Amino acid sequence: MTLSSSAATEYHLLNEVDKCHVCVLQDGRKLIGFLRTVDQFGNMAFQDAVERIYVDDCYGDLYQGLVVVRGENIAMLGEIDPELEKKITNLEKWM
Questions:
Q1: For residues 57 and 71, what is the distance between their CA atoms, to the nearest angstrom?
Q2: pLDDT for the residue 86
Q3: Of 25, 43, 56, 86, whose CA is between 20 and 30 Å from 1?
Q4: 3-class SS at 15?
Q5: What does the pLDDT read at residue 74?
Q6: What stretches in the chain show pLDDT beneath 50?
């Protein structure tokens, strides 16, 4: 039995549930949160999400809470290692 490409993608995304991810949207915004669910259309729900805003060498996080993102608005998704993120020292947090 072979899976369609959308079913195969959904299957692989299910392995990423309950991990912290950065989601870059088509409009350039960056959401960071815990991926909680994915459906067959690529829609995703993030818990405890923040919108990260970068300005020069600084960044700020705006708390968004539970965020549902339509699959067509997602440009990129990547897993974040929380321990590694704490070690980043070349940016200053300003909010």
A1: 30
A2: 75
A3: 43
A4: coil
A5: 96
A6: 1
